[in-house]
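Example 3.2
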Amino acid sequence: MNQALHRIAAEVDLAGEANERARLQFGLACVERVQHFIESPEVLDCLDGLHGFLDGRCDRAQFSALADAASRLANQHRGSHSLDGCGHAAVSATYAVANALAGRALGAADYAAYARVYGDGGHGAVADAESFRPEHEWQVAALLNLLVR
């Protein structure tokens, strides 16, 4: 867990209703960094729906249906027994998408960080807290940048 990110989110009430757009934008930014790990075209369609919702091309009902689909797809992911971590990165990236569409920006950030670490360093890297530092630092900077716009 990115403690600095969670602290900032609490300070600005990122979970509050007034910050829905910021949550969605931040979740999207985190997911975009790991979308190359996503294996399912259907999950990528859900991600495109998030873009559409933020751009005004997708209404609330369509977006809600996509969020439900993303959650279902994440929960149905076949997982991976891959030793190199890439399969685990795909699972984490898929859960990052589901969290982003659900408006759970911090969950999206946490799963995206796992996807990055799995993808960059394999399964064993997730046990090393230092492996998360670059992504955690990026996340803090990205959220702060989003909040000052």
